[in-house]
Design brief:
By secondary structure, the protein is mainly alpha-helical. The chain contains six helices and two strands; from the N terminus they run E-E-H-H-H-H-H-H.
């Protein structure tokens, strides 16, 4: 099992898919990194040599990923809440932040629907 940035990458996956297991690395960034290093994206991650893995680790140091990115995102959310802007208020109330409707949808954000006692007549 290959370990990069504190994350175990799954064996048997293509290199571009395996890199997506890192927080902050999506498909486009994974392909960009592999192209820059001249590694075929269809190569299985467990078949890469240690030298290739070291090159990938060095290339990933140029980007903010994993713990640093998680910390930055949470600090941004806390900053919005402290300055009491609209987005911060929505985060505090655990409602959708980006203008989605909440009358009928938003169950993921609001949680399970709670019945109101005595409403039906």
């Amino acid at each position: 099992m290959v370990r990069i940035a504190g994350v175990n990458l799954p064996n048997g996956k293509h290199a571009d898919i395996a890199l997506m297991y890192l927080y902050g690395v999506g498909r486009p960034l994974a392909i960009t990194i592999l192209d820059a290093l001249g590694i075929e994206k269809t190569t299985k991650i467990d078949l890469l040599s240690e030298a290739d893995l070291d090159r990938i680790r060095d290339e990933l140091k140029k980007y903010i990923i994993e713990g640093d990115l998680r910390r930055e995102v949470s600090q941004n959310i806390k900053r919005f809440q402290e300055i009491n802007c609209y987005r911060g208020q929505r985060h505090k109330k655990r409602l959708p932040v980006r203008g989605q409707r909440t009358k009928t949808n938003a169950r993921t954000r609001k949680g399970k629907a709670v019945a109101i006692a005595g409403k039906k007549k």
